[in-house]
Amino acid sequence: MTARTAGRAGTDARIALSVRNLSKHYGGAIALADVSLTVRAGEVHALLGQNGCGKSTLIKSLTGVVIPDAGEVEVFGSPLHMPTTDPHTRGIAVIHQDIGLVDSMTVLENLGINARYGARLLSPVNVKKERAIYTDLMHRLGVEFDLDAEVSTLSPAERALLAVARAMRLMDGDSTEQLFILDEPTAALSKPEAARLLDLMRRVADLGAGVVFVSHRLSEVMEVCDRATVMRAGRDIVEVKVSETSRAELVAHMLGRRMDDFFPTPPAFTGGPARLMVDGLSGERVSQVSFSAHAGEVVGVTGLAGMGQEELPFLLFGEDSPTAGRIEVDGAPARFASPTAAIRAGVALVPGNRLRDGVWIAGTAEENVTLPVIDRFFGLFGIRTKAVQQRAFELMGQVDVSPNRPDYAMAGFSGGNQQKVVFAKWLQLEPGVLLLDEPTQGVDPGAAKALLNDAMVAAAAGSAVVVFSGEHELLAAICHRVIVLHHGQVIAELGRDSLTEHALLEACEAAPSEISVAA
Ligand SMILES: Nc1ncnc2c1ncn2[C@@H]1O[C@H](COP(=O)(O)OP(=O)(O)OP(=O)(O)O)[C@@H](O)[C@H]1O
């Protein structure tokens, strides 16, 4: 039985969310044009669409972050007055990918922060009572937490589960008039971890809440959602029953055109000189890792969350310092003291967490995209502004950034379009070694294919491309071989002939003793 068929959507007649004719423009640009959306209680409803189609603007309108120009919203039959000032009191909770937990505090302390313990100086919190309430709530949700564990010890999926429990308590754990909006919650999770979160979403819906799932991972949408609303260019295009559609149809609605394959294929690779050689590399989470990547080759690195594939790209790029081991780039020793040294040696890293590692959010797109090469634009009288603008326009056009406005601040681009700017920034360097860390995180299927295609072109031109990802379908499609990490060590290597999504998952989940590394 799939998660979706286990649901009880259809038996609950209440409407959790009704959005009618919502509109919003930013300056001259229309972000939402007469958008309507209906989410029933007891259902998981997908909100889908290309990067920049208006999903976040819609959500932000519900929580008061954005003030819409026009439109009406009802939550469980009562009008929502906008701008919303306290969404929690109306039973609305938005759970973002960055879920705002404090690592050094315990689970209970984190839960307490948002139950406003600090504001209750005059009537101190009854810790025993809170503990009992949370234990009961988590029991109802079917999740288990040691309330005294430090949050830093939780896996990414557990952190997301905790965020859901926290939101439920905040909105009054006993009420069923709750609307959960999960904004790309699984984007950074490996498949088994994502499965736990999807399962939780289903349970929350089964308790009678309305759940909105914003995601670019359509396989998960097909698995867990009851219905989907697809937006395109600020409009709602269609509402479909997920059981009556296909992934290809959803993509066609999103893009306005059919897309036959979701991923490009790698260029033919028959061997080439090693551009990257890693020997016995160790860091905080990886231990004795050895592998190489050759000119023209696309190598994947994967593992379950926390197995070391998150740290490895930063060790290679000079952002973190290895504790042992050797790195060579094009035959020369290359333990970089800083990213600048790595870039000089022809290594580029497109990070997955663009907000933390990739984007200067206060800068313009033009400043971001030309940052690594700005010295090329110094003339007799300072920076040649026109030339910088022209170059940024060309680069952004190559990866299809929308809108192609180099003068816009990065904050004015949707998440996926920010990722495209980061891609453009690094591709222009024509790196010998291109490191891609979760390259399609938050990117719609059309743009993901285009970005990955750019990486394949780089490989065909002689770069060694290394892709670090928990998305096995992607790795199976674009890699010549994939290395699997388990507790920081390489435990398996799958060649092109044996590369399937299923084989990768099996390799990730198998105990090291069950698997041997290919010679
Ligand atoms: N603060 C802002 N100022 C100007 N324009 C903005 C601002 N925020 C969003 N936009 C524009 O509004 C449109 C809708 O953006 P929004 O972030 O809602 O898209 P999205 O569907 O959530 O995209 P993604 O999937 O990439 O997160 C985009 O064209 C974006 O550039």
Folded structure, characterized:
This protein has 519 residues and is α/β, with parallel strands linked by helices. It folds into three domains: 241 residues, Rossmann fold; 176 residues, P-loop containing nucleotide triphosphate hydrolases (Rossmann fold), CATH 3.40.50; 74 residues, no CATH class. It is 31% helix and 24% strand. It is built from 16 helices and 22 strands. The chain has a six-stranded mixed beta sheet with strand order 6-7-8-3-9-10, with helices on both faces. Strand 1 and strand 2 form a beta hairpin. Helix 4 packs parallel to helix 5, helix 13 runs parallel beside helix 14 and helix 15 packs across helix 16. The two termini are 40 Å apart. 47% of the residues are buried. It binds adenosine-5'-triphosphate (ATP). The site of adenosine-5'-triphosphate has 18 residues, from strand 2, helix 1 and helix 13.
